[in-house]
Specification:
heterodimer; A: alpha/beta; Peroxisomal Thiolase, Chain A, domain 1; five-stranded mixed beta sheet; four-stranded mixed beta sheet; 12 helices; globular; B: mainly beta; five-stranded mixed beta barrel; 1 helix; 5% helix; 33% strand; disordered C terminus
Chain lengths: 391, 129
């Protein structure tokens, strides 16, 4: 790793995550317009011009051919390479990693990584499952987490209330985030009385869908223009499944694969992230964990090494995971509040860590001058991506 | 091919038709495509003694009674009928309730599909629990 040069974040940009279907008071925007807006916001924050960008990587899942091209065509084609990355819910982090690598290896100095999505409605359709499994009804995403949750409850004694508490905390944080789809708190009672989707997962244990875009411009340190504190990339890791992962599924079911699992995918990513960065879990000041379903945040924190298995519910109960706790998790409200535009989600997680490290997170700013943060995303395939940023 | 060591030197083995529930869920909402069976439906993983976990639908059971560790056995049962009227069959697992099961079946107990349960899985022996 010593041969890689250091890579800085030049600027970030978001659109509000929301519904852009033109109905019920919502504005209408095409997916590529959301991508374009996020990129223009990032350019402005980076104090750079479009002509400075030397390459672009775009993460999307449902936007058809040339998603990055569609968005960039609104800004201007300049002959740079545009590469589109589909890696399910980790697409944004996978695009980020390619951008990072291309600067770290000195191929380019200034590169754009972004993600956007205009989501189809309803249960997420996934072609990641073989057709016969779809005929069997195994392709329901909340059900995959439900099976993980049942297992997690069995092994750790966690309860449905513990899961509900994740939603309550994240929606409380989301109420402070003007870019989140849901900016309203919910109560334990509301979560626990919402309708059952896949036992024991209720509607408010599931993240909502959303449309949106998120962009990050990366550069070599000598090209930095924006004022404010410099944030650099300490680790960028991607792992796509290990022996024993479910085929096709998220890989996030709690140890539930087709065979007994020898190595856990998230634990593998964490191990590599600590190795690459030289840090350990005790060094992290702020974390974005993967809460596409509420219990996922709990086992994510455990597998990333922030506590022992089964201890996350207690940390949550004690307030350790709150914005002013000792390990703030999902300070922007997580997927639970932001909503989940697949291609943009993992990019938005990195954006939040960047803002926190620069003390630019306004009402939801983690106190105590955070210096190091981690973002973790998962996705069908399966995929697991970790980004560590430092100031 | 073996997805652990990539060897092509494989042999078929006969797996047990009985195992224990590793995890499960009851899906309350119709999946986005393909699945045509009843909703709600129960599915999950069954761990077989050989160490393999099989993802499966559960049948012939009260959803509220499903538990991790419950002993279940495989049956072949109708999944759905296709557009041409063909009966599409699939493996499913059902709880091993008691040795009474064979007689219950003879009395024509219906499963939640309203179908006659299939002939019970081979390997079932009344003396085994």
């Amino acid at each position: 790793m010593s041969r890689l040069r250091e890579v800085a974040i030049a600027g970030v940009g978001l659109t509000r995550f929301d519904i852009y279907d033109g109905e019920k008071g919502h504005a209408f925007k095409e997916g590529y317009e959301l991508g374009m807006e996020a990129v223009l916001n990032a350019l402005q924050e980076a104090d750079m011009e479009w002509k400075h960008i030397q390459a672009a990587f775009c993460g999307t899942v449902y936007q058809n051919t040339g998603s990055g091209h569609q968005a960039i065509d609104q800004i201007g084609m300049t002959g740079i390479p545009i590469v589109n990355v589909e890696n399910a819910c980790s697409s944004g982090a996978s695009a980020f990693r390619l951008a990072y690598q291309s600067i770290a290896t000195e191929l380019y100095d200034i590169v754009l990584a972004f993600g956007y999505e205009k989501m189809p409605r309803g249960f997420i359709k996934s072609t990641a499952w073989p057709v016969w499994q779809r005929y069997m009804g195994f392709n329901v995403q909340p059900a995959n987490y439900a099976k993980g949750a049942i297992r997690y409850m069995e092994e750790t004694g966690a309860t449905e209330e513990d899961f509900a508490r994740v939603t309550v905390k994240n929606r409380k944080n989301g109420a402070l985030n003007p870019y989140a789809r849901f900016q309203k708190e919910v109560t334990m009672e509301e979560v626990l009385s919402s309708r059952m989707v896949a036992k024991p997962m209720r509607l408010l244990h599931c993240c909502p869908l959303a449309d949106g875009g998120a962009a990050i411009i990366l550069c070599s340190k000598d090209k930095l223009k924006s004022i404010g504190q410099m944030v650099t990339v300490a680790a960028s890791i991607l792992n796509s499944g290990v022996y024993g992962s479910e085929t096709g599924g998220t890989g996030t079911t709690y140890g539930g694969g087709s065979v007994r699992i020898h190595e856990d995918l998230v634990e593998l990513s964490a191990k590599q992230a600590w190795e690459m960065s030289g840090y350990g879990p005790e060094d992290m000041d702020v974390v974005e964990a993967y809460d596409t379903m509420a219990p996922g945040e709990l086992w994510d924190i455990e597998k990333l090494g922030f506590c022992k298995k089964g201890e996350a519910p207690r940390l949550l109960r004690e307030g350790a995971l709150d914005i002013n706790g000792r390990l703030p998790v999902n300070t922007d409200g997580g997927l639970m509040s932001r909503g989940h535009p697949l291609g943009a989600t993992a990019s938005a997680q990195i954006v939040e860590i960047y803002k926190q490290l620069r003390n630019e997170a306004d009402l939801r700013q983690v106190p105590g001058d955070p210096k190091i943060g981690l973002a973790h995303s998962m996705g069908a395939g399966p995929n697991s991506a970790i980004t560590i940023l430092k100031r | 091919m073996c997805t652990h060591c990539q060897s092509k030197n494989l042999e078929e083995i006969k797996l047990s038709r009985r195992g224990r529930i590793y995890s499960f869920t009851v899906v309350m909402q119709r999946p986005p495509e393909y699945y045509k069976g009843p909703v709600p439906y129960a599915e999950g993983f069954v761990e077989l003694p050989e160490g393999v976990r099989v993802e499966t639908l559960f049948t012939d059971c009260n959803f509220d009674d499903l538990k991790v560790g419950m002993e279940v056995e495989m049956v072949i049962e109708r999944l759905h009928e296709d557009e041409e009227g063909n009966q599409i069959m699939a493996f499913k697992f059902r709880p091993v309730t008691s040795n009474e099961l064979p007689r219950r079946k003879q009395r024509g107990i219906k499963d939640h599909n309203g179908q006659n349960p299939s002939p019970q899985g081979a390997g079932y022996s009344p003396g085994r629990k």
